[in-house]
Specification:
The protein is mainly α and 516 residues long. 54% of the residues lie in helices and 5% in strands. The protein folds into 2 domains: 200 residues, Fumarase/aspartase (N-terminal domain) (Fumarase C, Chain B, domain 1, Orthogonal Bundle); 294 residues, Fumarase C, Chain A, domain 2 (Up-down Bundle). It catalyses: L-histidine = trans-urocanate + NH4(+).
C-alpha cells in the first residue's frame, strides 16, 4: 500500500508505533471513529455544566500552574484560554523537524479523541483537518521541560488552531497560519473553557520522538549485525563463537537473535573457510569487538524492546490535567509527568552510543597493520603517499565521542519552574532531542564501518565473501574498488543514505531472508 494513501483510525483502540510513523513520516491520513466523537461530546457537556458553577474548577474557571488559586470570571474565560496558548507558545531556537511535529499532533489528537479532555468536537475535527492538509506549525527546539506536558511545543500547535503564528504548508513553504488555513478551507477555532489547557498538556512530543527512534534503532540494530559480519570476514575472524549452543548458555533473547543473524550473514564465506584449519591459523580468539558483537547488539535489542513496552503503554494513555473521568468527575492528576518516557529515551541514548563505540573499534582494527591480519596500513593503496581510510576513522571517533556526551541522562536534571508549583520535571523533551542526534550519529558510524569493511573484504580477493555480505557490497552506490586516495566525504554520505534508505538492509535480506 502507498503510505500516502493509508488511513490511520484514531479513537477506538490505542495507536501503534507503526501508526505514528505512517502519519509522521509517510503522510498517512487520520480519521476519527464516530463512537469517539460521541464520547468527546459527552465529556464536553460535563465541562459546560461546570462553567456556570460558582465553585472554582482548575482549567475551567481558574488560572494555571502557580496561578491556579485565582478565580476567573465568566466574561474572561475565553480570553483565559487564548492567553494561555499565546503565552505558552514561547519556544526558541531552530525549527523542529516536520516528522516530529506531525507525530506530536497525531498523539495530541489521539488523547483528545478519548473523550477525557473535555474539548468540543469541532476543535478535534479542525486539528485533524490541519494535520491531513499537511499544515505543520513552526515549533522551536527549546521550551519543554517534559512536565505539565510538552507545553511550548504543543502550544505552538494550539496557536495554529487559533489561526495565529506561522506554519509550513504541505510543500514546506513558510506561511502565516491564517493564509494556510484559508488555502486549505479550514476555519480557526475560538477556544472555550478548558480547551486551551487540553491542547497543551501531554507527553506527545517526547513520545512521538520515542516512536520514531524505536523504529530507526530497530533497523540499525539489524544493520549493525551486517557491518559486524563484514568486519569478521575482512579481519579473518571466526564465526565459531556465534554458534547457537554457546548463546543458549546465556539465554538473553536479543543476544540469540544477533548471533543467529551473524551465522546467516557469514554462511558460505570463502574468506572464512580459508582460515578454518587450526593448523594454519594460529590465533586463539578474536578481539572483543568481533567476538562479543552479539552480546552488545543483543543488549541493544533488549533495551529497544523495553522502550517499546513503555511506548505502547503511553500510546494507550489519555494524558491531560484535569481529566474528565468516565463517571463524570473532573479530576486533577499527575499523568502529564514525562518520567517513564524520559527514562527510556535516556536508556536508548546509552545503548546507541555503545553500539557505535564497538563499531568504531572494529573499523580501527582494519587500519592498524598489527591487528588487521595482513591488510595494508590504513587500507591505503600506496601507504605514505595515500592515507586510505585513516581520516574516515577520525570522523567515526569524533561522532562516537559526541555520542558519549549525548548518553549523559537528561532525566536526572530536574529544574523547578512556575514559582515552585512545578518543582520536579522530567526533561523528557531534551532526552528525546539528544536521542535523535544520537541515532543520526550511529547511522554515520555504521556507514563508515560498512565502507571500511567493504574495502578490507575487497583486498582479500581472490577469496570471496559470503553471498549476503557480497550482495551488500555490490549494492553500495558509487563506491569504486580500492585504489589511490579520492575525495572520501561524498562516498561516506552516499553510504549514510544507503543505510538510511533501507537499501543496505534489503540487499542482505535478499539473501538471508528477514533478519531479526
Amino acid at each position: 500500500m502507498d503510505p500516502m494513501s493509508a488511513v490511520v483510525s484514531v479513537g477506538v483502540g490505542p495507536l501503534s508505533i507503526a501508526d505514528v510513523v505512517a502519519v509522521a513520516r509517510h503522510g498517512a491520513r487520520v480519521e476519527i471513529e464516530p463512537e469517539s466523537l460521541a464520547e468527546v461530546a459527552r465529556s464536553r457537556a460535563v465541562i459546560e455544566q461546570l462553567a456556570d458553577d460558582p465553585v472554582p474548577h482548575y482549567g475551567v474557571s481558574t488560572g494555571f500552574g502557580a496561578l491556579a488559586t485565582k478565580h476567573i470570571p465568566l466574561a474572561s474565560r475565553a480570553q483565559l484560554q487564548r492567553s494561555l496558548v499565546r503565552s505558552h507558545a514561547a519556544g526558541s531556537g531552530p525549527e523542529v523537524e516536520r516528522e516530529v511535529v506531525r507525530a506530536l499532533m497525531l498523539l495530541r489528537i489521539s488523547t483528545l479523541a478519548t473523550g477525557r479532555t473535555g474539548i468540543r468536537v469541532e476543535v478535534l475535527e479542525t486539528y485533524v483537518g490541519m494535520l491531513n492538509a499537511g499544515i505543520t506549525p513552526v515549533v522551536r527546539e527549546y521550551g519543554s521541560l517534559g512536565c505539565s506536558g510538552d507545553l511550548a511545543p504543543l502550544a505552538h500547535c494550539a496557536l495554529a488552531l487559533m489561526g495565529e503564528g506561522e506554519v509550513r504548508d504541505a510543500s514546506g513553504e513558510l506561511l502565516a497560519t491564517a493564509v494556510a488555513f484559508a488555502a486549505a478551507g479550514l476555519t480557526p477555532v475560538e477556544l472555550r473553557e478548558k480547551e486551551g489547557l487540553a491542547l497543551i498538556n501531554g507527553t506527545d512530543g517526547m513520545l512521538g520522538m520515542l516512536c520514531l527512534a524505536i523504529t530507526d534503532l530497530t533497523e540499525l540494530a539489524k544493520f549493525a549485525d551486517i557491518t559486524a559480519a563484514m568486519s569478521v570476514e575482512g579481519l579473518l575472524g571466526t564465526d565459531d563463537v556465534f554458534a547457537a549452543d554457546l548463546h543458549e548458555l546465556r539465554p538473553q533473547q536479543g543476544q540469540a537473535l544477533s548471533a543467529q543473524n551473524l551465522r546467516n550473514l557469514l554462511k558460505g564465506s570463502e574468506i572464512r573457510e580459508s582460515h578454518r584449519d587450526p593448523a594454519a591459523c594460529t590465533r586463539v580468539q578474536d578481539a572483543y569487538s568481533l567476538r562479543c558483537s552479539p552480546q552488545v547488539a543483543g543488549g541493544v535489542r533488549d533495551t529497544i524492546a523495553h522502550a517499546r513496552t513503555v511506548a505502547d503503554a503511553e500510546l494507550a494513555s489519555a494524558i491531560d490535567n484535569p481529566v474528565v473521568t468516565k463517571d463524570g468527575r473532573v479530576q486533577s492528576n499527575g499523568n502529564f509527568h514525562g518520567a517513564p518516557v524520559a527514562y527510556v529515551l535516556d536508556f536508548l541514548a546509552i545503548v546507541t552510543a555503545d553500539l557505535a563505540s564497538i563499531s568504531e573499534r572494529r573499523t580501527d582494527r582494519f587500519l592498524d597493520v598489527s591487528r588487521s591480519n595482513g591488510l595494508p596500513p590504513f587500507l591505503a593503496d600506496d601507504p605514505g603517499v595515500d592515507s586510505g581510510h585513516m581520516i574516515a576513522q577520525y570522523t567515526q571517533a569524533a561522532i562516537v565521542s559526541e555520542l558519549k556526551r549525548l548518553a549523559s541522562p537528561a532525566s536526572v536534571d530536574s529544574i523547578p519552574s512556575s514559582a515552585m508549583q512545578e518543582d520536579h520535571v522530567s526533561m523528557g523533551w531534551s532526552a528525546a532531542r539528544k536521542l535523535r542526534r544520537a541515532v543520526d550519529g550511529l547511522r554515520r558510524v555504521l556507514a563508515i564501518e560498512l565502507l571500511t569493511a567493504a574495502r578490507g573484504i575487497q583486498l582479500r580477493e581472490p577469496l570471496r565473501p559470503g553471498p549476503a555480505t557480497a550482495a551488500v557490497i555490490a549494492a553500495l552506490p558509487g563506491i569504486g574498488m580500492p585504489g589511490s586516495d579520492r575525495f572520501l566525504s561524498p562516498e561516506i554520505e552516499r553510504a549514510v543514505e544507503f543505510v538510511a534508505s533501507g537499501a543496505a538492509l534489503a540487499a542482505a535480506e535478499g539473501v538471508t531472508g528477514a533478519l531479526r
